[in-house]
Amino acid sequence: MNEIQTLQQHPIRIIATRRRRRTVAARLRLGVIEVMVPASMTPAERERWADVMRGRIERQLRRAGPTDERLARRAQTLNERYFAGRLAWSSIRWNDTSSLWGSCTCATGAIRIATRLQKYPEFVLDYVLVHELAHLLHPSHGPAFHEQVSRYPWTERAKGYLMAVGQMATE
């Protein structure tokens, strides 16, 4: 399964880029911690930063909380169907939020789904899961993200359902 129950060492990929001048960033992507560093950094500095960023990511993973097994099974089914089984996440759980349907922290792979979706039709929950899973590949809502999400055949219907529910809730 994709969840991380106990702390484990993730493989690290160091990406040196000229676009980065002074800052270092990291994210968990497909089970690998990617550390982006300035190209001007020495190999020793890169290794030091890789260790620092691994610690940060793994602390965030510990704080993410336990995975909900029902959501994890459903996400895995959708992962296999719409993403060829190539996605990995650290946790997936219900979250008591009133402003979002779901969220994904791309850096750690933590996915949260609004508890209120439990009372909605399965195709709506599946759409939100596909939406958040797609963020593991495409952090922004750009064209590649929308193309990925639109592979789910009930996307437009689910979006309409959520729009209707959202409008009714604010009236």
Please describe what this structure looks like:
It is a single chain. This protein has 171 residues and is α/β, with parallel strands linked by helices. The chain has two domains: 12-63, no CATH class; 69-170, Metalloproteases ("zincins"), catalytic domain (Zincin-like, 2-Layer Sandwich), CATH 3.30.2010.10. It has five helices and six strands; from the N terminus they run βββααβββααα. It has helices spanning 43-63, 69-83, 122-134, 143-149, 155-170; strands spanning 12-17, 25-29, 32-38, 91-95, 102-105, 110-114. The strands form two sheets. Strands 1-3-2 form a three-stranded mixed sheet, with helices on one face. Strands 4-6-5 form a three-stranded mixed sheet, with helices on one face. Helix 3 (122-134) packs across helix 5. The chain is elongated. Mean pLDDT is 86; it is low at 1-7.
Topology record:
Layout: E1 12-17, E2 25-29, E3 32-38, H1 43-63, H2 69-83, E4 91-95, E5 102-105, E6 110-114, H3 122-134, H4 143-149, H5 155-170
Parallel strand pairs: 1-3, 4-6
Antiparallel strand pairs: 2-3, 5-6
SSE order in H/E notation? Answer: EEEHHEEEHHH
Helix content: 40-55%
Using only CA atoms, what is the Rg? Answer: 18 Å
Number of distinct beta strands = 6
Report the total helices: 5
- CATH fold group of the largest domain: Zincin-like
Task: Write a concise synopsis of the structure shown.
It contains 5 helices and 6 strands, in the order βββααβββααα. With 171 residues, it is of the alpha/beta class. It has 2 domains: 12-63, no CATH class; 69-170, Zincin-like (2-Layer Sandwich).
